[in-house]
TrEMBL record:
The name this protein goes by in its record: ATP-binding cassette domain-containing protein
Phylogenetic lineage: Bacteria, Bacillati, Bacillota, Bacilli, Lactobacillales
PROSITE patterns attached to this UniProt entry: ABC_TRANSPORTER_1, ABC_TRANSPORTER_2
Organism of origin: Lacticaseibacillus yichunensis
Keywords of the record: ATP-binding, Nucleotide-binding, Transport
Residue stretches in coiled coil: none
Gene3D superfamilies: P-loop containing nucleotide triphosphate hydrolases
ABC transporter domain: residues covered: 4-213
């Protein structure tokens, strides 16, 4: 079973405390929602677990400490702010190019991911002509198309309409039910309540409350 353990994780920028001694165990087969106001540290928690920032303390991915055998968790899908999409390619080509890196996704997995986020795999339009919501859907497809064990999504419902949120919920539940560990950060309480099984309230760089839904 996939497990991510944070032990006394802290982060300072200059003298400002960004993450304040976080200890918590995340388990596979669950969808966690990081909830809290702007600037409380939700994105930084995701970045820390994804290996994008260095922190004090210990982060363990399935028993292996981040920064020892690997700097980034293997088998991770990530949607982080300012996700890079290639504007001069179609949605399908965007996934095909990424697929060449890990070589786990075949054409069927790519098309399937696009359909699951509500995009048409046969759409010949380039991404530069996509609406914001379509770009967000493609960014979500990037995070899930290789069926990773760890899925980290920062503000995944930005620019999505209500149908989009419902579609993403169904998709994330499928990923959860096959055992993936999913962590979502959002300041939109209604969306998080819709998507998550466990809400973690973040304040001042700490988890101040755990709420099971
Ligand atoms: N590069 C940086 N240098 C200094 N401080 C930073 C940097 N990036 C973020 N911070 C600070 O870290 C704190 C936590 O930021 P974080 O992005 O995690 O907030 P958040 O909870 O995700 O907020 P939001 O809902 O606005 O996305 C904020 O106070 C922010 O000002």
């Amino acid at each position: 079973m996939t497990e991510v353990i944070l032990e006394h994780v802290s982060k300072h920028f200059h003298k400002q405390v960004i993450l304040n001694d976080i200890s918590y165990t995340f388990e596979g087969g669950r969808i966690y929602g990081l909830r809290g106001k702007n600037g409380v540290g939700k994105t930084m928690i995701l970045r820390a677990i994804a290996g994008l920032i260095k922190t004090q303390g210990k982060i363990e991915i399935n028993g292996v400490q981040l920064g020892e055998k690997f700097d980034f968790p293997p088998d991770m899908g990530l949607l982080i702010e300012n996700n890079e999409l290639l504007p001069d390619y179609t949605a399908k080509q965007n996934l095909e190019i990424l697929a060449k890196i890990k070589r786990v996704a075949d054409d069927k997995m790519i098309s399937n991911a696009l359909v699951r986020v509500g995009l048409d795999p046969n759409d010949k339009r380039k991404v530069r002509h996509f609406s914001l919501g379509m770009r967000q859907r493609l960014a979500i497809a990037q995070a899930i198309f290789e069926r990773p064990q760890l899925i980290f999504l920062d503000e995944p419902t930005n620019a999505l309409d209500t149908d989009g949120v419902t579609e993403i919920k169904a998709l994330l539940e499928e990923e959860r039910d096959r055992g993936a560990l999913i962590i979502i950060a959002s300041h939109i309480t209604e969306d998080l309540n819709e998507l998550a099984d466990t809400i973690l309230m973040i304040q001042g760089g700490q988890i101040i409350e755990e709420i099971s839904l």
